[in-house]
């Protein structure tokens, strides 16, 4: 239109870095981060993030470089979400449950130049860096995050050419630093790995624009007003804490950081800090409702809990309501910056029976405000399926909170976005009111405690056992973890192996949460072409029910 212009007065690239800049002024003296006896204000958090950015710049980190982090929900992990992008670099948060083999693969694939590691995760990191060294790959510069006083742990020579400690790095860095704002709002801000196989990891690229928009959308779907108190029970390494690492800054909230999640810790922190919001997979909800009476404490007010990864069991929803929690059900993937939908609650549902309310809330709902469209389509014709609650199709999304692509894998990117939609790989139905509900997964992924497990990777390890002839892995329902791996195994003739040995064999070669919890010895059902009929095995595993009825078991 004549007279219209685009210039710096009316266009600035979107980035969640701006949330921190505003919070430091508007909420400067309010608590930003609380961890045990440590409390920082928003003004102090901004200063620490600037020092972190300054330190990284002095280490040679610049625009486009990757900086990795392996740490639980502690203040340093929160600060990295701002300090790293302030340099123009890309933050790669790594799953704290990974073993050394997986970490080495991801560090090599990401080409991280610096890695920040919590001192309690140093041993597994040393193993990863040793593997990198053996592969003739240059290891990243290692910075230890130590919350105890005294010298940082000693690091073998192979681990990194120089060893630094996080607080020392910040103390010696100047606070005057010129933020490297994104040139283009579609520039990458973070790299998040899906739980794929070690041979083909998928690094999901998030942009400044997508992170900004999804952070705001997630704040809105959580009904967050200004100055919320957020308890960090969602790992910050998972989709950047469902984008709430940035979202809490937007609202000038208080981040309550906890290193380990347990029902007792959750109730204690809710009571102590008057927590208003938290999140977690159904695993966390199950932990709360099954907490011993002695550990439970009355809620100081309404506590909103966002859950996802798998539909929460109705009985868990009943108990959460009885305890005073307000549960919001969302759905998404790493490729959609975490939450992409919300099962928006309608007041007219309040009067329905508890069972019907739970059924409605267990649906995945509709797209949130940063996703343009959610649909269930025929994956071949791309035609929408009827909204009859019965006809299955693939759940697809499109909008501004869909990833830029997979790092170093253009073919996978094009495949995932063919036809102009992001293909989730999940199968679902659409109901008459437009709400979507998942029915199955087109990929045989097991979701255990909110983490994805590749059955192909588990099967490849099982096939390495000298007594295993055939095997197939499916998910078995678990009241605590949601699902756990169940291996169906056919042994070679003349061999005799027990389930415990199979489990030990896998645990020696996989992270424990990926190893089978159940082993069934029998012939595998096959199609006429010789393919294993996994749907038959899934039904068998489902019929077994949960192996644990009274709480968690170690993974």
From TrEMBL:
PANTHER family linked to this entry: ACYL-ACTIVATING ENZYME, BUTANOATE--COA LIGASE AAE1-RELATED
GO biological process annotation, one example: phenylpropanoid metabolic process
Gene3D superfamilies: 3.30.300.30, N-terminal domain of ligase-like
The enzyme's E.C. designation: 6.2.1.12
Source superkingdom: Eukaryota
Entry keyword Ligase: yes
Official protein name in the record: 4-coumarate--CoA ligase
Domain AMP-binding enzyme C-terminal residue range list: 457-531
Keywords assigned by UniProt, alphabetized: Fatty acid metabolism, Ligase, Lipid metabolism
The species this protein was found in: Cocos nucifera
Pfam families, A to Z: AMP-binding (PF00501), AMP-binding_C (PF13193)
Ranges where the AMP-dependent synthetase/ligase domain occurs: 20-407
Chemical reaction(s) catalysed: (E)-4-coumarate + ATP + CoA = (E)-4-coumaroyl-CoA + AMP + diphosphate
